[in-house]
Structure formats: structure tokens, C-alpha cells
Amino acid sequence: MTHSAPVKVLMPGDYQFSVQPLRIQTLLGSCVAMVFWHPKKRIGGMCHYVLPTRKSNADNDARYADEFMRILLKEIEKHGTKPREYQVRLFGAANMFRQLKTTCADTGPDRNQSTELCHSCVNVSCRNRIAAINESRKYGFTVVEADLGGTVYRYVDFMVGTGTTLVRKAQLAALL
Question: How many CB atoms lie within 10 A of CB 96?
């Protein structure tokens, strides 16, 4: 991955959309990163949402999956593109409190659980995973990769200019 592009580090609730080469990075636990890239125009970005939704949403806020999608749709329209033209990668939604058992399969070993949906989630990681999948499907994005669930942190590094995404998974101490 080239290191010559400017770097933007996303904190929880941040997002970045870029038409210029840019390296976007974030660290995830139970939060979700949605990486979106238009392969023909070589534009895109990433969000780091914290929760799937909230009861009142007067303003669009990138901390919430459903509200971030409205922000993203405006960006997409502004650039003359459509959601189905974007490749989306979904990362995160780890159960960081292993002692909390859930009805979802997010307390087991790390594995791709992008198609495993449950309807009785009791923790935020499970609800975030379902929101990532449902919001992507709802607007017609093409999900090309999903690494959701498990019990480890993920460090996500995305290059807007090339669409290259690298993900490292580890216990927090190993990432620092």
C-alpha cells in the first residue's frame, strides 16, 4: 500500500468521502466501518459508526448507521453516481465483552458472519452487524467483503485512489 497519500484517521462517529487519493484508517471494536469505493471513478471513503440507530434523528449524524446512510446518499448523488456502482466492505461489530452471552453467534471464534442474522440481539455488536448488512442491502450497495463479529479489534486501512483495503485483527495490546 502506497504511503504517499495524505492520511485521515477516523474516530467513532466520523466519516470521510474523497475524490482525491487519501489513506483512511480506523480502529474498531463493537463499532462498524463501512468502506465504499467506486471502481470506475476511483472515489469513495469510509465511515465509523457507533450504533445502528437512535430514537430521535432530527439531524443526520454519522455515529448512527441509518443516519450515516442518508449522508452517504447525498455525497453519492453530488458526484453523479448511484449506490449500486459502489463496492462496499463491512468490518467490525465485535463482541468486546466476551462474558456477555448473546443469542447471536458473535461470541464464538472469529469468522465471517456476514450472512448470519438474528432477530433477538441483546448487545450493540450484534445490532451493529445487522444494521451494516441491512442498510447496505436496503440501498442497493454491492457488498464485496464482510468481516463482522468475533471478539477481536480490527484496524482498517483504506486507500481511496486504489480501493485497497487492509485489515489487521488482534487483541488491543497487539495493535499498539
Answer: 16
Q: How many CB atoms lie within 10 A of CB 65?
A: 24
**112-115 long-range contacts, CB within 8 A, separation 24+:** 112/146, 112/147, 112/148, 113/148, 113/149, 113/150, 114/90, 114/143, 114/146, 114/147, 114/148
Q: Where are the alpha helices (DSSP H) in 48-171?
A: 65-78, 124-138
pTM of the model: 0.85
Please give the C-alpha separations between residue 77 and each of 38, 71, 141, in angstroms, as whole numbers.
13, 10, 14
| Domain ranges (residues) in the chain | 7-175
Question: Which residue is it, cell 488482534?
Answer: 170
Q: Are the CB atoms for 145 and 165 separated by under 8 Å?
A: yes
pLDDT digits (tens, 9 = 90+) for 93-117: 998 876 655 545 544 333 444 444 5
Amino acid at 48: H
CA distance readout (Å), 93 to 75, 79, 111, 133: 25, 29, 12, 11
Rounded CA separation 116/87 (Å): 20
In CATH terms, the fold of domain 7-175 is 60s Ribosomal Protein L30; Chain: A; (3.30.1330)
Strands 32-38 and 43-49: antiparallel
